[in-house]
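Protein record
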Amino acid sequence: MSAGAFWVVQTLQKNGFEALFAGGAVRDALLKRPIKEIDIATNARPQAVQKIFARTIPTGLKHGTVTVREGGESYEVTTFRVEGPYRDYRRPSKVTFVRSAAEDAVRRDFGINALFYDVAKRAVVDYVGGIADLSHRQVAFVGDSQSRIREDALRMLRAVRFVTTLNFELAREARKAIEKNAKLIRKISSERIKQELDRIIASERVSVGFGTLDVVGLTEHILPELHELQGVTQPRNLHSEGDVYAHTLLALEKMDEGFDLPTRYAVLFHDMGKKKTRAVRDGRVTFYSHQTESAAIAKKICERLKFSRQETDKIIWLVKNHMVPFDVAEMKLSTKRKWALHPYFADLLKLYAADNAASLRPSGKPNREPPGYREWQRVLRNLARQPEMKKPLLTGDEVMKILKLKPGPDVGKVLKFLEEKKLAGKIKDKKAALEFLKQKGTSVLN
């Protein structure tokens, strides 16, 4: 815990109030994990907290939360509370402030998130068996599992997220309750679902996370397109790992910390179109144009789960073009350079490598490296030594002046022509481009 956090707790105590570190910060401290957010629980009412501290933000006074600013950091201070009946499986109809941490603990979601730390006593305070859950490395609901889920159905996804990120197991009762109530996840907003999926897909155990989502019955309600890949068989000589679903989970395993969030989703979505495009021709299983269909499905998922426009554009581009690197041997130099200069191309190669590593040979071993991978790396290295490749040789105004053209599509055609020549290594700089146009004139448009 930070010095600022201890100061906030001790200041509350000096003013006659009980104050304890609460929730995830205590859990992560006990697990010796990095502490990202520090929450403080107290019997002080929000108005009292505002009076005690000079710099506060009324984050959620209705729910008892005040953010205290100290030393450039923010600390959420929340009054002990219990919650009234929930509406729409997500939000309580009312919040009632209470005087003790014991009452507060029983309204929390999981035992591992209902722990407190008493600074004065230097002791962990556990009212609901959270220490036992930590020792057994399990995620269990506080109290009755079904009641916790029916209060807030998002807790089902949160349970899977903690299983994934903490390398824990779902407690037996928690798993049974989620299986029974999985369809309630449809009551939760797309934005909240995506927030949890983001955390699962960004974890080091992403395939375990998505596998668990499917086992407990959540996948068919939030990502039915992924669930439907089960049983979509592939040629054994190219995919001994199994069906498209198995291939997708294995590809997720092949990601490392260098994969950003959109690229991770592109790995998840890259073969979504194989179910629709699967065909058997002359005894061979084919998936012609599956990348195009996969991109269309990815777009629908992104729209449904409210991905940002920037995320959506990148995901669709990566999925649509994930087969492009295979064709490197048939490409002209200018074409290779054109692809390699795209801002998403480095991430396309990461997707390409994960896809290849998840495509197992009949022996059960992956290919050592994707076909043409070294050639793409060579192209990228050469381009890195030629920064001028990223800049246009001439501007539209310069083209119009030399060729005496009016604004219009012909200017764009000339610029595209020059770009092709540059990428092919036939025109190297601005001077050469000017000389070329002076010699050729408008014949370049023919």
User: Anything to note?
Assistant: The two ends are 71 Å apart (CA to CA).
